[in-house]
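User: quick one, fold this
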Amino acid sequence: MLVNSPNITDKKYNRLVLEIGLTGFSYCIFDSLNPQIISFKEILFPATDAAVKTEDLYASAYEEHPELRESYDEILVLHNNNLSTFVPTALFDEEFLGSYLQYNTKVFATDFFAFDEIDSFQMNTVFIPYVNINNFFVDQYGSFHYKHVNSILVAKLLEASKNIDETKMFVYVQPERFEIIVLSNQKLLLSNTFDYKTPEDLIYYLLFTAEQLNLNPENFKLEFLGDITETDAYYKIAYQYIRNVAMMDLSGFKTNNTFSTADNLKHFILFQS
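Assistant:
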């Protein structure tokens, strides 16, 4: 979705992508001609009193990082929250965005709803953006595009599943929640978000999801990405109960930067935007 209309007179040949949340944000700057990532940074907000406004934390970060206040040909803001769902294009009606979300999140009459069109796969992502943070970016940039992180994540994984008929489960791990995405040959079979605190929470939801989809833990393949490594207790418990477990194969993905494999797994969505 686009906020305001851009009026660019001088090309900078770069674009800024920000992945935003309530506890911090990360950003990277792309060279539009190559395209390559030429700069990347992750910013975590300090623990503060609940009375401190999130937009004030962003304002402080912008004071400390002057590159964020420069001009860019394009600015993309990715909203990272668990307030989203996918709707097939055939069942989608822009007039009823809130009704699609009411089954998996608490929806209020005052909520603002947005959606991303994923035309290549005939579906839409319906989500609730951070309106207060969007307003901060309006003050900073005037115009920018914004999407939900899951639009990028699922579209990229679906693209990579072309001509692969086997059913595969991907788990994108973040602090306190993770996404389970199950797909086969560019068909999305399931996408869901789960909160977790312990390794036992994670394996419970993985096995429950597998059971619901009639996936045998001895046969289906599970690939992790996000904020996880092979030495994590979360990875180890999955490896204990599911035979085919691995970190996601980044072949074909790690082409636009020279950062480590760990960085590319953790910031997969940001780097692939």
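User: anything notable?
Assistant: The longest strand covers residues 36-44.
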